[in-house]
Amino acid sequence: MQAVMNPKYPGLSVRVADEGFDPYVWGNDFSFEVSAYGVPQMGQRVDQWPVERVLPYRKCYGIDPEEFASFRNAADSAIFMAYLDDRAVGHVVVSTNWNGFAHVDELAVVLPARRHGVAKALLDVAQFWARKKNLPGMMLETQNNNLGACRLYERCGYVLGGIDHLRYRGIDPQTREVAIFWYRLFMPERDSL
């Protein structure tokens, strides 16, 4: 796949990950600040969810590029990297899930590049990949402490498909983190590229 340019942010492009993926991941900070937990509500927009404020803290998922080594050059998965003025600033890992949907296994943008259209550009390329494979839509999961991501997915046409209050209790029995499953269904008559 050739580089995809973003007209709103002319220095932004997305292309298939190369040998620079591992050093890029190891050399960047993908953490974000948590200042609230949303209480997801089916059928309501993210800005309508009740919010529980917390003392701000940094959250980092500890991204390991080796976890996705088998995703490169595979027929049912891909890794794309975003570049802002030729500097690697984000990535998306996408695969075909067991249920036939494209699954966004990971989406991350480095802290200084946020709010420059990087995440949306990566989701757009993942969507193009999924449509080329004639998949019925896309799915991904985030948590209720990442409200910025929830707002992004909603803006990109994703809808809330499920809420799992117990998913992270095995890691921390006291956690307030809730798994939120988002879906972007492709409807050819309305959504065609």
From TrEMBL:
Entry's Gene Ontology molecular function annotations: N-acetyltransferase activity
N-acetyltransferase domain segment(s): 41-188
Keywords on record: Transferase
UniProt xrefs under Pfam families: Acetyltransf_1
PROSITE patterns on file: GNAT
Protein name as it appears in the record: TDP-fucosamine acetyltransferase
Organism: Pseudomonas fluorescens
